[in-house]
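Entry 14. Ran structure prediction on the chain below.
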Amino acid sequence: MKEFIASYLAFTKKERTGIITLLLIIFALILTPFTYSFFIPQPNIDSRQFEKEIAAIKIKTAGSDQTYAKKEFDENEYSNHYVPYQKNYSPTFTGQLFTFDPNTLSPEGWKKLGLKEKTIQTIQKYLSKGGKFYKPEDISKIWGLQPSEAERLQPYIEIQQKETVNFENKKFEKTVYTPPIIDINQADTSTLIALPGIGSKLAQRIITFREKLGGFYKPEQVAETFGLPDSIYQKIKTRVTINNTAIRQININTATIDELKIHPYIRYNIGNLIIQYRNQHGNFNTIEDIKKIMLIDEGTYNKIHRYLKVSSN
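Output, structure tokens:
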């Protein structure tokens, strides 16, 4: 056993030399990063220029929030100094003075007077929203216009007064608005939405109910629309009429139960009675023959007979 272990764990001289060489290479690679700075000189970085640029940015940022302040920069201390606004500051104005009406003057005219572009935009926005200048002093209310600049322009302002019309001797007839009357059988959703209290959902429900019926034969049927409050119907009942009386009718001699049951006034119960009676007694000769069906009373007949027809074809 000892000889067997020794044969696998013993190293020759060549193998030991290889192992030692490999260890030396690994150790050299580990030490390389620590000796890098000794062989390659590092550039000297002067942070003063960077600090100057940062200080200049701070001056610019702080100066944007100051009004009438003078900025000074100290390169040695990298600090920002502000000199407060002097009361005796006298601004220099540019532009040509001339007589003008601020209510009608064009942007080019304001620019000719020497106003800044932003101030001109403020004036134009004020006028576009219905604002008016009624007296020269009103110009001082414009935001961004300095008091000294407004004082300089006021002597040249001439506001044109509109002519006053005497209405005492004139009589005017009051215009009475007459809302349009719509045909409930031909109206689409956009027409129905124009009615008081009718939104897109109610308009669609009215049309769906109309299509299932086959058309309205009287305006009062609109009140039967699902989800239509009686208060809304009372508002629109004088606004609807029926000019187109063409109604889609169902042939009770050929109709199937599926055709009859989808009609809101017939449904499955009455439709099934009609089919059963037809199967037992043959085709109907007249619409009045459905009265022979026991469960169809006079009220039901009056409600559905306009939507039925009799034909042998």
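Strands lie at 70-74, 79-83, 182-183, 240-241, 250-251, 308-309. Will compare against last week's run tomorrow.
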